[in-house]
Structures are given as structure tokens and as C-alpha cells.
Amino acid sequence: MSGTLNVTKGVNVEILQDGFEVALNGVVLLQHTIQKPMLFVGHGEETIEMYRGNFDIKDYVTERTALRYANVEEMEGAYKIDLSNLKNGDTMLSLIVKEEENRLKVEYQKNDANINRFWLRVAADKQEKVYGCGEQLSHFNMRGKNFPLWTSEPGVGRNKQTYVTWQADVVDKAGGDYYNTNFPQPTYVSSKKYYCHVETTAYADFDFRNEAFHELQVWEVPKYMLFETADTYLELVEKITGLFGRQPELPEWVYNGVVLGIQGGTDVVEQKLEKVLAKGMKVSGVWCQDWQGKRITSFGKRLMWNWKWNESEYPELDKKIAEWKENDIRFLGYINPYVAIEGDLYKEAEDKGYLALNTEGNTYLVDFGEFYCGVVDFTNEEATEWYKQVIKENMIDFGLDGWMADFGEYLPTDVVLKNRIDAKIMHNAWPTMWAKVNYEAVSEAGKLGEIVYFMRAGYTGIQKYCTLLWGGDQSVDWSLDDGLASVIPAALSSGMIGCGLHHSDIGGYTSLHGNKRSKELLMRWAEMGAFTPMMRTHEGNRPDDCFQFDGDEETLEHLARMSNVYVTMAPYIKSLVEENARRGIPVQRPLFMHYEEDEKTYDIQYQYLFGEDVLVAPVHQENQTEWEVYLPEDQWVHVWSGEAYTGGSVTVQAPLGYPPVFYRKKSIWSELFSKLIHI
Amino acid sequence: MSGTLNVTKGVNVEILQDGFEVALNGVVLLQHTIQKPMLFVGHGEETIEMYRGNFDIKDYVTERTALRYANVEEMEGAYKIDLSNLKNGDTMLSLIVKEEENRLKVEYQKNDANINRFWLRVAADKQEKVYGCGEQLSHFNMRGKNFPLWTSEPGVGRNKQTYVTWQADVVDKAGGDYYNTNFPQPTYVSSKKYYCHVETTAYADFDFRNEAFHELQVWEVPKYMLFETADTYLELVEKITGLFGRQPELPEWVYNGVVLGIQGGTDVVEQKLEKVLAKGMKVSGVWCQDWQGKRITSFGKRLMWNWKWNESEYPELDKKIAEWKENDIRFLGYINPYVAIEGDLYKEAEDKGYLALNTEGNTYLVDFGEFYCGVVDFTNEEATEWYKQVIKENMIDFGLDGWMADFGEYLPTDVVLKNRIDAKIMHNAWPTMWAKVNYEAVSEAGKLGEIVYFMRAGYTGIQKYCTLLWGGDQSVDWSLDDGLASVIPAALSSGMIGCGLHHSDIGGYTSLHGNKRSKELLMRWAEMGAFTPMMRTHEGNRPDDCFQFDGDEETLEHLARMSNVYVTMAPYIKSLVEENARRGIPVQRPLFMHYEEDEKTYDIQYQYLFGEDVLVAPVHQENQTEWEVYLPEDQWVHVWSGEAYTGGSVTVQAPLGYPPVFYRKKSIWSELFSKLIHI
């Protein structure tokens, strides 16, 4: 067979002398010849070791076979491609190539039970850039590196060159690397304006190091892959969220100001509120992680992990929540999918058989760092319903308007689950299951759009079920890979694959190995936070080693001013959040999303567009009074000086309190933006 | 075909239902079935980057195919085994199995030009231990780890957990790991009492992590492999050196005392000699690296690398050498296979076309750390003869009685050589070629057995051509992987594969990243040095950061005493060196070599037998006054107290100056050993 075959209007299969080519709307995606096969299969024997959410994963690939020989067969509305490692040999793997809802769908069927490794090459160009793969903290454009996709702790330091990383590795095996993330996803977006999604929850590794192809490795034969093209990046992210789902809007109350992360009990909250309100701070809520109690470990302050009001820690909280709400200040708490062994929830869950088991049939205990927990088994429908009930009764009914829905990355690979599916396959699925538990609890309580829960863990499908991402536990420093800066590529990458609402702990979280949060870092982080969907502070894991928002008058006044900036911007932010809910266009966007002709924008990862009309270039280094910003060609106005710019690299004054922010002169919101100069 | 076929008396090929088995003298070495194939071939694309002798090597294995299907054919005195990945498929690789000089020889022929990766599995038992693979500094028994075999700098620190390693990595990419070594070799010895040698100089990686097999990876199809068995370990090392060759004896003068590493010129040597001789130190020689001049770099004191007497640095050296020799003190120098760009040797070699080229046809310059050198091309016979002449004229004729023949590990993989063989294949061959240059220069001058040169780099064949190994550049610390202790497994492993003469820099060498040599370290190292074939001190790379042998009176007296211990032991040591020259039995031996029934001895790597009759357990930790020693069952006498022991774990007093050393009561040398108590 030879010549061109159009399966449908979009998908085009070209039969070549010794192979074939598959294109979608003119974009060549798969190229196969005997000399350059696009598919390899084989067998590997992995070892996976977890230490407190950090994984040591090794693979011993015993076989990897090129499937050089293809036989293409026409079917109704589809093509079947049989692949073999030999001419006229037995089919080892079959592909069904078809169009489905304007997407190219490639389904896979393996004919050899021994196959547990799969490497597919997607055609690439030298100049091509790729983005996505979940939330990537070190590299927005992933070209030139490979990205293991396995949900885990993101690492402390995340750069083997730094002292903090080295110490974290030595002490806790926790240093991490550029690719470690709470939220991986086997989905990427190419600058050739297509997305590619692999439907799998197995361990995967997407390798973007080669010039002529991207090699997608999966530790199973995936069910299928999807490709979709678009004319613009906006249309592309719209299509991505058309596939994965879109987030609801944020609650109205979020726009009232900053959410203050406070711990220590009712009195402390009261005192701090009084103090900040007197300073004119706009406060939308208080977020008290320790509403359910706390414990002290060598890592720092940790929580009790028994998900209900801790009356001794927060006396009269039931009354206070209502009182604060009357004053437009909401109360937010904390939960995660584990129950600590000392708590009554653990006892109840264990009695009812709701916890995951070990291979001996006993409750599997996970080490979270000097304390142990059971894993609520979300593959057990009754357990899931029970946990939703815990959320509804203990949190929603109690009056909480939001919470951190923490963790989700720790499912051990040797745990025994109710559904009997290998935990290696369920591991990556867990974050989305955890998100869904929250989503259903909230929606069943009729509170979608009124409650906000924020998560760091994610995987395919999180788009629909997670109301807001937070960037995870950054180190309280200026490091590119784990400090303030890292949050920006995190927001941009997750936004590219459909999670358009992102924010981070103002000030960062992890203070270890001598790393302490400075006042300046806290202030710069707050400046950035004012230009994200939600502002929220965090005390950090070791509050005494972290400068706090009420550490001195200047910092208090700075945060108060930034909360006013945020509130001033709120109508605009709300419109962006609405656009995200409706079309899936992220609130924080890479510059190329609106300036795709400008090649320079494709490698910018420490600036972002805040909607179409605002450009933000957070100061992410210490001791800066001015900052260099790249502006794509347009008419820009610097918000603090009113000065006009037309594009290119410009240096602006950027003292504390005045982050480099610009708006488009032609924006319909320009009047609103022009108010910032007066704050 | 089925049943048993004896190729010859020793080699036995058993034809199985779906495979075959090859044994030598009853030891099953190769086992092959369709389900558990013993051979895999494939294709890889490597990237090799060198930075000052440290290599970053990555492999992208695109294909790895199990050769499951075997066809065994009888030939004259041999069996031919054709292997295919398919039943009745084309032969991808053929094996010729035969017996040659009582060895099992397996030759390989590839039928597919695309194959550049080769993985062979040798049958293994769970309890089996393996040793050798060149000079291994971290692990004597290699079971449980894999060992890349590529000559390189061994690393500074060699353990990612240590600060020194981390800093060395960050600053110079030089931290290294447990397997990095100047002297790798694709040869190992099994506790099943066989050796296995792979004939190749390509990159290799021997993987001893699996229970049922050892997987030997080679980046080419090797020419052949050899196996040989023996009844005892002594017989086995004798057979190994029967294959690779044996070292000549050390010169007589070596036994006169310690060789003092001194730098700084004639006057400094004179002054130091006067001082130490007055203390009663026994001195056999002075070793002046900087006899050919020096330079200062950020690393420390470096040499000029223009191999001839530097008269301004060493005035009247020509006369002094003769004068010292009359007083039984020899002069030793330094050379390596590179010529610095500033020197006249470089100019001469470049003019004559003796230097290796880059791909543009110009002289290839290698960065040795703030200075550049040409590579004398030993694949060019004229260049080799010229360099031998340099050694003969500038060193031997000038009166040198020994030298450090440094380096050999730095051949860049992109260098163009006269013989046009890929430098990736020549890289591992280089150390032995360099050794051969020295060997031939010395033997052609009629000085074999009178001159000693010591090397750190090695590879297959070094056994015959290197008169003495030194352990390379240890860090001046107590670390197991790179300090004093590391020298012991280094001596044991190289001894197992036929390099029976080993010694090390007393005090270690590398002082970087805050690491400074303490007085105690120097003293402990000297104690160990007295129980090695040759005692030699080193100032270190940063002499001012290293405590020196003349740093104070106590240290001087300690070294003087140790030199007397060495001289007292000399007749015994000489007999061991003679045994090594005659039979290839190493001077430093693992305990199991004489106590093979004692299972505990197989994992002891920080003690050694010094010949059959002396057991040495160097104190390799700081601040020790006593030391625990394991003694195999025998009648032992503690040399310093005369106390008798019969075996087991014993703790002895081990203050400075009294290293834990024992001798066999029944030894014919016991009278000699009993003299030590009086020193």
C-alpha cells in the first residue's frame, strides 16, 4: 500500500516506501521508517524505594526492541498499524489511528505479555519548545532535558550544586532534582501548537533531549494517546481544558484581601487580626493549619492529622468562625488523605477496614517523619464516602470556607489496595482521587464556588477537581530551583495544561539546614502574591526561623499596602478567573500566549502575563533596587511611575513595595490599573 | 542435539532442552535457556565529557535484544554456538567455545554491524563474592554493586555524602564515586575460585548486583573472554599472572629505608636529609617531583611538565645525585605522558608530529588545570621511541633511580591518533601503553630491577609493565572512600588480578576544600607504610596545609622508628617481593587467601596479610588508643607486646607508633619478627 490516506478531515496517514507518517491538521506527529522506527517496546525490572515522599527509582531494562516493520491496514474510519521487530514477523504491538472529537487518537494493543516498557518517538524540530508535564518548578521550556513523571516530594533545594540540597540529601534523602514535583502529568504542549497527552498512570519519563524527536517512555503500554492542534495558544489551552475539565471560579470572599496563615490558637488569631486591621490591611480570611491540633518534630511544627476541631488548641472556635464571617473574614483549615495512628479517625477507619493494607494484611503505616499514619483507601468506595463525610461534617458544617488539601504524593508502591490494582499504577492516580474526594464533598454540600481548597499534588484530571493549586513547599530563599522564582514556571507550566489558578505560600515554607526567611524575601514574595489569583501567607515549618508578616511595622505596612493593591486589582482578577472557568485560559500566562510572533518570549520563565493586559516581572533576587524586564512590542505603562514603554529590554526602579508591573495602555481595564499609582 | 559434550578435559558443554551450559573443571560459568538467555546485544549512543580527568559518561541504549535461541554445532576441538533473537532466525552473534592452555576461551563474532553494546551474564550464586576489576578503592568485595570500568581520576572524596565530595563536585566536577579509579580492568576473581577476563579496551560496566548472574556490559562485542579455575586462591593468582605477566623484583636499595618526598631544590634536600639522618631515620632515597621545575596553580604546587633537570630549581643536582648515591641514598624524579606547551619538549614533539591531533588537524591541547599540554602519541612508533629516549637520556643517564610515572587516564575521547583507532577504544589502553614506554626504556637501558617507577593508572597488561603501583591521590583525611583506609582495598583488589606490589603516599595527597593533613594522620599512614613493599612520603598538593614528617620532633622520631621497623622487616619483605616476581602472589593479601575456610575473612577489607606470616590491621580512625582486629584461627603473636592469640575478634592496644600487627608463631621468620618489640 502507498500514497496518502485521509482517515477523516483532520487526521492524515501517509504510507511511505518503508514506513508511514501521521499528521493532524498538517502537523506531522508520527514518523516511522525501518531505519528510524518510532516505537520501541521491552522489559524492565524497576526498584522503587520511598523515604518520606522522596523516591529512589531505578530501572534495569533487560530488553528494548525497535519495532521497525509496519503493516498499515484500513478499517472503518480508522487505520490499524501492526508493528513487528521483524519483516513479516509476528505483531508485537498494534496501533489504531483515528480521529475522535477533532483529536488524533492512537490506541495501543500489545500482543506480548512480557512487554512492560514502551518508548514512543513523536516527531520534533530543532527549534521546537515544549511546556507542561504538570507543574514544573525548574524548567518551563522542557527542551533539552528529560522529565520523569512520578508524583513525589519536590525536594528541598532541588539543585545538587547548593548546600541546602546536599544537606537535605545527606540527612533525609530529600534534596530532589529539577524534575521532582508534586504534580507531574504525561501531557505536554508544543510550540508547534499541538498538545500531546498519554493516557496512563504508570511511571513515565518524557525525554526532550533529542533534536528530531521527543521520546515518551511509559512503564506499561498506555491505553491511548491524544493529540490536538489549534491556531493559537489560547485556543490550545481551551481545548486542553475541554479534555480535562475546568475549575470553578474562586469564591467571592477571596477578593476581599489576603488570607493570613496563622497558628497558635484562637487568642493568637484574634490578636493578630486586631493588629493588621488597625494597619489597614485587607484580610479575606485566616488560615489555621493547626485547627485540628499540632505536634513538634525535628522538622518543625507539624499537625495532628486527626481531622476535626481541636478544642483545646482553638477554644470557642465554633463561635469565633461565625463572628469572623460576619466581619467578612473567613476561616480556613487543613486536611490531607492520611490519618495519624493516635487519632480516633484512624481507629474508626481501621475498624471499618477503610485503610490500605500491607502485604501481611495489616494496616499499612506510612512514615511522615517521626509519626505514622494510615492511608485512607480511595479505591474503596465506602472509605471514600466516609472521608467525604468527615470533610462535610467536621469541616464544611463546622463553618470552614476553605482548606489546604495537602499531600497525595506518598502512596507507597507496596501497599495493598481494595481494588487490587498494583500500587505502582495507582501511585500517580492518587492526587486526582484525593482532589475528587474534596470536590465531591464540596459539591455535594452545595458549596462549589463558595469554598476554596488548595492542593500541591496533581496528575491528569486534577484540572477539574482542584479549585486552586498552590506551588508546594518552597525553601525560604532566593534560589531559582526552590525559592521565590520557582513558583513562576510552576504557575506557567500547570497553566499550560489546564490548571489556570495558582498561588504560593507568601514567604515560602521550608526552613532547614540553616536556611532562614529574611524580611526582604517575605516582602518580595508578598509583592508577587498580589498579582496572583489569591494572596496567602505561611508561617513556615519553623516559624521562629522565618521572618513573619507582623515581624515589624514596615513589613506589616508593606503587606497591608499589597493587600490593597490586590483588592484594587480584584475586579480584573475576577474577570480572569471567570475566563479560566469558562474557557480554561490560565490567569498567569507565558508571554508567548499573547505574543507568539516574538521568539524571545518562548524562553522567559520568570515573568508572566497576568491576564492579557498586565505583565509582572517579580524581583526574585536579593538587594535589588532596579530590575530588568523584557516587554514584547506593545504599548506598556509602568504601574508605579506611569511611564510608557513600547517593548524590548527595559530597566525600571524596583525598590521594595514596587514590583515591576506594567499594563497595556489599550486595555479596557486601564483606568483600574492607573489607580495603583496612588496606593 | 542433547546430552553432554566434552570439548576437552576441562571444558564441558551440556546441551539442554532449550539451551546449554558451559562448565570449566566442574564450575558452571555460562547458563543459557530461552527463558533465561545469557547474552543480550544492542545499540547505544554514548556521550562522554571530560573535565580534567573526570568523565561524565551517559548512555542512551536504543536497543537491547535478548539472544534467546541457540544452535550448538560441534567443530574440531571446539563448539560453535549461533545465537539469534528468534527461533530459526538469522544468527546475530556466534560464540566459539574452546579450551586453550587450560583456560576456557569464548570467542565472539558479530553478524550485525549495528551492534555496539554487549551484555553477557555469567552464572552466579547468592553467596558468591567477587574481587578485582583493577584497583578498587571503596569496595574490595564488589558483590551488590556495579562497576563502570573506565580509567579516570578517582575523585576527591568519592562519597556523595561528604562535604569534600560535594564541594569537589560543585567546584571542579571532581567528587567522583565509589567506582572511579585510575586503574580499572575487565577481570574479576570469584569466590568460586575462577577468574574471568574480558579482552577489550572499550568502556565496560560489570554489574554484580544480581543473585543469579553477573552481567558484564561492554561497549563493543569483545574479541574473547577467558576463564580459568584453580584449587586455591594462591594458585589462581599465579595463573592470572601467568596470563598477564609478572612484575620484576624491586631494587635492592628500596629496602634501605623510606623514600622521602621533598620539593624545593638542592639545598632543601640537603638540609632535610641532614636533619632526618641525625634522628636515625633510615632513608633509601629522596623523591623530588619538582626536579624538572614547578608552577603554582589554584590547586596547589604543580610541576613544569618539561622532562629534564631544571638547573635553576636544583643547582648541582648532577653532582649531588652521585654524592647521595655513594651514601646509599637514591634520587627519584617524576614524569608523565604529556608535555607542557611552554617547554622545549613540546616544541620538539610538535615539530616532529609526535603529538596527538584534534579533529581539525592541530595539536590537541589537554587542560590539566590552568595549564595545557600535548599528548605524546604512543600509537606512533617514532613518538614512542622518542619518548623512551627522553626517559633514557634525561632521567636514567642523568642518574635517576626511580620516578613517579604519573597519569595515563586523560586520553580525551575526541583526540585523533596516528593509528586512527577511535580514542574511545584507546582511552583504556593508554595506561598500559604508558607503562610499556617506561618498561622498555628501563629494560633497554639494562636497568630492570635497579630502577623503580610507580604508577597509579592501569589497565589489562599493566601487571607486566609496571614495577610498582601507588594508590593514587588520596585525600588527607580519615574517610573510608578516599582517605587512609581506601588504600587497603586498593592494594588487595589490584593484588587479586596480578599487581602484587602496591604502596601509597604516606600522609595522602589531596588537600582541598578545607581538608588539611593532621599530624596524627601522617603518623598512622607511616605506620601502615612500614608494612608495604615500599615506604614513601608525599608533601601533598598544598604542603602548607599538610603536616610534614619534619613538622615536629615527635613526628620525625616516629617516622625514623617506622623506617627502622621497615628495614628490620626488609628480609621478609624481600622474600615476598621475590615470590611475587616468581609466582605472582601479591605481597598484601586478603585474609581468605590463606584462610579460605573462614567465611568471615571474605568481607574484611581494612586488614591484610603481609605475606603468609604477618597480619596488619592499620588504625584508620582518629583518636584511637586501641583497635579491634579479626584474627583467623591460627597461632598469632602481637608484635609489640609479644602476647599470643589464637583467633577471633581481639582488641589490642594501638597507641601512635604501635599499629596492630601480628605474626604467625610458626613462621620461619618468627625470630626476625620478634625483633620488632625492641624497636
Automatic annotation (TrEMBL), chains A, B:
Domain Glycoside hydrolase family 31 TIM barrel: from-to ranges: 266-575
Entry GO MF terms: carbohydrate binding; hydrolase activity, hydrolyzing O-glycosyl compounds
EC numbers for this chain: 3.2.1.-
Gene Ontology process terms (BP): carbohydrate metabolic process
Keyword Hydrolase found: yes
Pfam families attached to this UniProt entry: Glyco_hydro_31_2nd (PF01055), Glyco_hydro_31_3rd (PF21365)
Glycosyl hydrolase family 31 C-terminal domain segment(s): 584-668
Keywords recorded for this protein, A-Z: Glycosidase, Hydrolase
InterPro entries associated with the record: Gal_mutarotase_sf_dom, GH, Glyco_hydro_31_C, Glyco_hydro_31_TIM, Glyco_hydro_b, Sulfoquinovosidase_GH31, YihQ_TIM-like
Family the UniProt entry places it in: Belongs to the glycosyl hydrolase 31 family.
Protein's name according to its UniProt entry: Glycosyl hydrolase, family 31
Organism from which the protein derives: Priestia megaterium (strain ATCC 12872 / QMB1551)
